[in-house]
Amino acid sequence: MKGRLFWFALLFIGISWTANTIYAYSKQLAEPIFLDHYIDTFMPGDDYLTFYYLTNKDDVSHISHVNLGGVTGYIANEHFQFDYGFHFDSTVNLQTFTHHALRSIQVDLNAIELEDALKDGPITFNEIDLFFSNGKGVTASIGEVTILQDYPDDELLRSLGASGSNDNWSMAYYQALESLRIEDVTNHLGKTIKDQLLITINSTTRKATSHDDLHWDDGAGINIWDAEFPYEVKKDDNFYVHTQISPEFIGSLSTGLVFSGTTVSGKSFETYHPLYSQQPYLTQKDVDKLIAEKGGAQ
Amino acid sequence: MKTAINLLFWGYLLVVLNIQIGIDLLPDPLGYLLIASGCSRLQDQHPIAQKARLFSTLMIFISFPTVFINLSEATSFGWSSYSMAIMFLQLIVVYFLFAILQDIVREYGEDRLLNRTNSSYTIYISLNLLLLAALSFSMNIPEVVGGTIILILIVATLIMEIVLLVLLRAIRRAVPSRFALDIKENKPMFIEEDYS
User: Fold this and answer.
1) What is the complex's ipTM, to 2 decimals?
2) For the whole prediction, is pTM greater than 0.95?
């Protein structure tokens, strides 16, 4: 290789390095972007609240604590399973993209502050205040999170089992312990998630009493958003709840449906059906879409 | 001459090898110091060694942070840029080292050793330029694509580091340890072989 060629190649690489660095720098996020979280949960007693966010791939800063609607949240060591506790502070990428990474934090809310906040009823917040170990503070939009005090369940629908798949499809099977007249199906997040969820209910006279006896009736069921209530379920009938989260939904869902109505004996009831999405799995296209929608590039 | 090439060999070995236990036990600045010292001994007979000495002296200071920081684990933007700058400068040092070796072999070596030096130079420099070019794009291409190419190039360049070290030993063996100028022929004259 001639000397001139070597210096020319070095010059080309230098220019390439500069141009690539400028482009990569333009793709850096000024602050983390949180995915949309639709959560309603019952505290205390529940597990940590998990939030997913996009950050720069080489971001080494750590979130030390958070503030949710005035309640302090501590960061749990969510990555213990990855490193067996050797690197308590490590930032683990759940997914890595060209310039960004998907990470998560698990928040443990201060029980005393939470109890105090819940005295006036459920609390709802749409933003999270993040405090980083380097002293930086950021407020990020997180969707809608509601914390409730009680868990309504009169246990008139006995759970027989549930199954689901990683494309956010799931179904659950119940057995009615009394003849029920379901008059309403509500969700604390209401209209916010209506477009993201397809939920159908169905009941049959099949007398399954255990998970092994169950079979799903494909396609059967009525969409609860369009359903005309009351909906009747006879005693011992199987009651199915089938849910499908929209493939367009990029975020995390942890909520529940409350079935309310009266029994044949005229007693009112409420029963709770939990709904969870899988850990988000994003594509580069999803990441680009999120950044375009929520901004954040420098 | 043998001593000078020995210094180049041990110096470059220190630069290539990293044993990081809190600090680099084989510090790069010490390696560059040995290379600069070797070049300084060679520069009277091989003027090109002056340039190698200049860059290796510069690297004594520039590479100082590598004693304390393991660049393979550093992910921040600043350290990535520094790492790239170190690779650039190291390649320039090696470029001039090869120029010295070619000069020496042309003078004392056989054709076979000269061919070996030339082909090692071409492959070494080409692979390292390719690696630097790939690394410059790596920050903007998906890891699955860039990672594979870079991994292959890293393995290839590591092999070439060994090739260069072995070549340095071969050239050391080929050159006479003492010589005098044959006035009649106006060329170096072999006096005795030094097996030390």
Assistant:
1) 0.83
2) no
